[in-house]
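Q: Here's a chain of 407 amino acids. Please give me its 3D structure as tokens.
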Amino acid sequence: MLRHSEGMCERNGKESKTNRTFMNSRSFSTRLTWRIIGIVSVIFVISLIGVGVTLQYISANGVSDTPANSVAPTTFASTPWRLILDLMLVGFFGLVLIFFFCRRLIRYMSRPITELSVSAMNMAKGNFRAKLPEIDSKDEMRRLHDSFLYLQYSFTDYISQLKMTKSANERMESELNVARTIQMGMLNTDFPPQLHALLKPAKEVGGDLYDFIRKGDVLHFAVGDVSGKGVPASLVMSITRAMIHFVATLDLPLHESARRINNSVADSSSHDMFVTLFMARIDLKTLHMTYCNAGHNPLLILPPNGEPYYLSVKSNLAAGLIEDFPYESESIDLEPGTRLVAYTDGVTEAENDTLELFGEDRLLEVVKRLDADSNEQTAVEQVYSAVKNFAGDHPQNDDITIMSIKI
């Protein structure tokens, strides 16, 4: 607030100084009048000198026609200087008359410039509808008036368009905020003790998704990433999540669930969008996990006694590219106390100011340092903090989703 106040005072001081300078400066009409008087004075003095020299020459060399017995005019030699003095006196009064006449004439002719300058000052203060002087002549003054008039119309039209654009942007931003609230509300946040997830869109809405559902002793979970960002990706994300939740209730084989989700995305997406997806089903009694990977990042597994590693997955296509693609599911037996970390490429492809990627190796080291006794919310927050600390002030360029499960 202090800086803002100082800036306002400084700006107002500059404006006041400019206005005082504008008001106190000698007018254009006065300066032009004095220049004309100066030129006329020089011409008048030169003319007087010429007249004086001519008369002096005539006085000294002229031939007299008077008779020999007449009296010669003895005062003729002083006549030129007296004439010059008389001419100077008359010229002085003539210059005074010329001064006042020129000043009135020039002021009358330059009045539109003064009025246009006042209008320009008002326009500079934001009054783009300031009244312009009426000019009936068809000279440069008229063209200057028309230029100011065009400038007024241009500024008025620009401000009108700017207000419309601002209003549209505010309305769109409001709608996007509502869409973000709806999208975040669609995500399942009723986390069981052994699971936690986090989703941070890069924009108001995003294309990342996660879902989980527990049916008795079976835990279904999935993490996905829609190609692209923004509203289109968020719509495909909503369709995909709904399909994931639906097929999880049918207890279908995972490869069949993946095929149905793939066909649904392919049918509903008309912009060649696709979804990378990792789906898994864990029997919490036997700790047997069946999974199907559709072009997604591999799962990170942290066993209770051992080094973390990336789960080996088959190279199935992302969902939505080809209908009825034959997906293949796989399975693995896990140890009690194993932690699973699923994520999207917004984690591994996070950039810092030098455009260095966070990378899979750095993620592996972060997961390795997780406390085995910490809960899953803490584990997710630690991974996310590591990504944010690495990126620093560099803007987030992709959606980030992290899910941690401990069995």
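Q: Can you summarize the key feature?
A: The CA atoms of residues 199 and 401 lie 4 Å apart.
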